[in-house]
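Reminder to self: keep the SMILES exactly as supplied, no canonicalising. Ligand is adenosine-5'-triphosphate.
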Amino acid sequence: MIASDQISAVTLRDVRKTFGDFTALDDVSFDIADNEFFTLLGPSGCGKTTLLRMIAGFESTSSGTIHLYGDEIAELPPNKRPVNTVFQNYALFPHMTVTQNIAFGLQMLGWSRSEVDARVREMISMVKLDAFVARKPSQLSGGQQQRVALARAMAPRPKVLLLDEPLSALDLKLRQDMRSELKRLQRETGITFVFVTHDQEEALSMSDRVAVMSAGTVQQIGSPAEVYNKPENRFVADFIGETNLLEARADKVQGDTVTCTLPDEGILLAKTNHAVVPGQAGTLSLRPERMTLLSEKPQDDCLKGHLKDMTFLGTDTQFEIQLDNTLTLNVRHQNSDGNELQIQSGQPVYIRIAPNAARFLVS
Amino acid sequence: MPRGFDIKHYRGFYTLTLLCLFILYAPLIIVMIYSFNDGRSITVWQGVSLRWYADIFVGPEAEKFKLAARNSLIIAVIAAITATSIATAASIGMIRGGNFRGKPASFALISLPIMVPEIVSAVATLIFFSAIGFKLGILSILIAHIVFCIPFAYLPIAARLQGIEASYEEAAQDLYAGRWATFRYVLMPLMWPGILSGFLLAFIISLDDFIITNFVKGAGIETLPTAIFGSVKQGIKPNIMALSTLMLLVSVLLVTLSFFVGRRQDTNPTTNTEDS
Ligand SMILES: Nc1ncnc2c1ncn2[C@@H]1O[C@H](COP(=O)(O)OP(=O)(O)OP(=O)(O)O)[C@@H](O)[C@H]1O
Ligand SMILES: [Mg+2]
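Structure tokens returned for the bound complex:
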């Protein structure tokens, strides 16, 4: 939940959407704060687009309410909502030039000609499209089309901007540039952004808060650091970033620290978000980059295993370690000068686990 | 067949093709050639002249043809405009209106006039008009033409609309356009090639309809096809050939235009998403 002194831009209460007997959204409730960069993150088919379309007005709710800055919007058609959308396929009007596309919303709002001209010029320089104003969408590259779609949606100064996977059609380099660009635009304009993506890296790098969704339900809402470091459940831990998931049992509980037993009777300290009782079964999430590989046995607690496989990833190398039982763990080791690891396949290695590396999850 | 099906390897293919083409087009070509004949005969060639073309406009039947041509044009223009408007509205209802009860039935009704034999339509329409006591004349022709033009206008318009993604209309609504503005500024420009193509098709179908027109026209009013038929009954003069050639020219022009307009690529709404 957001702090009480913040204005809520979008308020969803028990929002449900069914298509026939299929439930696309199952009683979703949360608040999006004014001026926030809010991201809906989840795998394909989890209902992100459906939720966005309900806020925009293209889809009705089966039950539940949606408020926009305090006003119930169920009865408002899309053209009466102070909300604009950047569509996944951009949906630029093919028969209009860049200028005409950007001016469209302003003309529909009845702005005067001089106001429209001034605003369009402002938007065009904002998204750096000055050289392309007279072109039709078919004469633009994917990245340029994306900028036009952005300018068109932001021109009428919506209270909330909805973005449905706007970067998914761009190549990796452009996508990364656009992340900081979008972030900058959001900061400068102060418009509330609701951003949809299935790319967790995108979500973590841009958002103020992220809602992680799965199969029509919200699994966790929090800052990128929260959802990454303190996942609520197995799904969130697995979906965001890479992790090792191990079955475990809680032995001792002290505040948020749990002493767990692994199937091989190994003992591990973990943190948890939940009220855990001793004896409870759960899942341990171990982030690969929070573990240290050592070729010599250290003084403190560690796990022992041997090298099974390794993959070079550029900045890191990923080691697959076979523990002394059936379990395998993935461990990341950063490639920097003086940090080279000299271990051979089959040789014994030791894994030191940082105090906050392991999370105990009950579901 | 390991080499796959290739029609060229069938014996008699070329002969058959030539025969079909000959049967289809030889009469037309003969009519076109003899329309330039300098003589009254329709079988003996007497040299090249344009006298029969002049005859259409200044000869003894000129007044009759002029009146008939005027009627034909008025009817074709009004019928095509009306049928195109109805077909446009129908296509939007059918394709964008979601699922409603009776949708398949509506589609069947729209396309029925194409499938019913024209003579049946003609008789039925005539019976209908006389049953309700409707006076036969230019208005009864017009109504009949509008009805049978609708499916011909509907097909290219619906085909075009089918290819337009609904997201353009959603984008327009998202940008504060109401229903009418969405249609006027986004949907109609995108549908335009289909609408124009439907209009031209309806126009040409109306212009050269004979059977239905002949049944419902009543006495004392002629369209070009019925006037030509009336003239031919008294013996074929080469001026009819000249008139037919002119009509053929107009038909071919309009159908070609309709074809190319329908195919036009530059405003095709599906092309700009290719690289995205
Ligand atoms: N009009 C509809 N009729 C029936 N089912 C629908 C309809 N629209 C969406 N769905 C279903 O609802 C679910 C959620 O769809 P939605 O488009 O919201 O997914 P998404 O999270 O946006 O996925 P993606 O990342 O692939 O875009 C899907 O299982 C989809 O099949
Ligand atoms: Mg989607």
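Points to follow up:
The helical segments of chain A are 48-56, 98-108, 113-126, 142-154, 172-189, 200-206, 224-229, 234-239.
Residues A 19, 22, 24, 42, 44-50, 198 surround adenosine-5'-triphosphate (ligand 1) (CB under 6 Å).
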